[in-house]
Amino acid sequence: MGLLKKNPFGHINFIKLWLIRIMGVLSHRRYRGFNELKIEGSEIIKDLPPQGVLFVSNHQTYFADVVSMFHVFNASLSGREDSIKNIGYLWRPKLNIYYVAAKETMQSGLLPKIMAYAGAITVERTWRAKGEEVNRSVNPDDTKNIGIALDDGWVITFPQGTTKPFKPIRKGTAHIIKQYKPIVVPIVIDGFRRSFDKKGLRIKKRNILQSMEIKKPLQIDYENDTVEQIVEQLEYAIEQHPSFLKVIPMEEIQEMEELNKMRRWEY
After folding, report:
1. DSSP for 142-175?
2. Which of 98, 136, 171, 201 is buried deepest, with most CB atoms within 10 A?
3. 3-state secondary structure of 128
4. Contact in structure between 98 and 8 (CB atoms under 8 Å)
């Protein structure tokens, strides 16, 4: 790896390497120390091709979710199964991991800007801006950039576009799947909204069991499946279909409602 080699977005790999190492060291105890991260299915990661993989997940915080995935993916690639013990895996991380994030969020401060350099594909929300509801067309450059990232490596996306649970899947994700035909790997996370604040930067509670389940790639007929069919498949895969509300304990539903009330006060 040349010291000044750049990725397709013009980011210098050497700088990105050290950002991932430093942020990885600083964040590791959030998942193995202050709180514990239970991992299932990480053996799937090491069998994936180096490019053309789209990870789809439910979303609970702005940053803690995706940072945990950087840990788990790199630990798995280094031979660890369902474990992030021993952070030696950070010495040679996979540099072509990207994640889709709202441009507004990634420009909200110095730390988000630094984290954006580590792999963010920033997109403009079509339904919300500066805390208000909007209705605007998809920026074609955003879709193009996701395609560039898929050609180069792996992409993490949160197709609901919000940290609120059981919100609809955005159809844009299904369109991207039909257009670029990636391998689609679902991930289901839990416990992050209880252990972190909304941004995922501040530890709210300790001794919380976080979980991450990595599922087998979806079977998608890219040519014949409709956008609506793919959306429904994603809803079930990341366990955000309305039917899953029936199996959630009432106390967890009440907790989610309380968290949403608190978050409305933040705007």
Report:
1. HHHHHHHHHHHSEEEE-TT-SSSTTPPPPHHHHH
2. 98
3. strand
4. no
Distance (Å, rounded) from C-alpha 162 to C-alpha 182?
23
Q: How confident is the model at residue 254 (pLDDT cuts 50, 70, 90)?
A: low
Distance CA 130, CA 27 (A): 28
Q: For residues 72 and 81, what is the distance between their CA atoms, to the nearest angstrom?
A: 9
pLDDT single digits (tens) 113-140: 888 999 999 987 654 555 555 455 567 8
As given in the structure block, the two tokens for residue 244 are: 């899953």
191: left (phi over 0), alpha (psi -120 to 50) or beta: left
Where do we find the tokens 């949160």?
A: 158
Identify the bridge partners of residue 108 per DSSP, sorted by sequence position: none
* Rounded Cα distance, 236 and 58, in Å: 11
Inter-residue long-range contacts of 150-153, CB under 8 Å, 24+ positions, other chains counted: 150/51, 150/52, 150/53, 150/54, 150/180, 150/182, 151/8, 151/51, 151/52, 152/7, 152/8, 152/51, 152/96, 152/98, 153/50, 153/51, 153/53, 153/94, 153/95, 153/96, 153/97, 153/98
